[in-house]
Amino acid sequence: MSLYDDTVLVLKGYEGQEELRQTYLEHLGAHPDGMWKACGDGHITASALVIDPEHGRVLLTLHKKLRMWLQMGGHCEPVDETLAAAALREGTEESGVPGLSLLPGGPVRLDRHHTPCAWHYDVQYAALAPAGAVEAISDESLDLRWFPYAEVAEVADESVVLLLEATRARL
Description:
By secondary structure, the chain is of the alpha+beta class. The chain has helices at residues 3-13, 18-30, 83-95, 152-155, 158-170, and strands at 43-52, 57-63, 69-70, 72-75, 101-102, 109-114, 119-128, 141-148. Strands 1, 2, 3, 4, 5, 6, 7 and 8 form an 8-stranded mixed sheet that branches.
């Protein structure tokens, strides 16, 4: 199965955000290349909120280009066999934390937003950090920091706050 086909199945199975989910499916229906950065009309991205429920905190990255505190995430790549694998790869690469595992149940939220490159149709997962996780900053970040749940709204935008709320509801 291709990454495109996997993504369509993931979206068809996603419950919630019905109107936005349909927008994603229509975008893919109109753009066979809609998984890739080269699709100038927008593309699917995969992200992962790295969470440490034991200590009540999340790991956010200060994005180098956007200069905003965000979850880990980015463009799908040809090596990604599934959308979940793309989210886990992005989470691991940008956090530097080995041994992340995705929260069961598929994506936590969808978030469509415009970036300097194009519209991003972000499919957002949550990744559980293993005990004793130590982060390592990547070249895509200006900073990488753990934030207590209660502080996320002070540093991040509404999309990250909503992702955290949805993730905590699923824990």
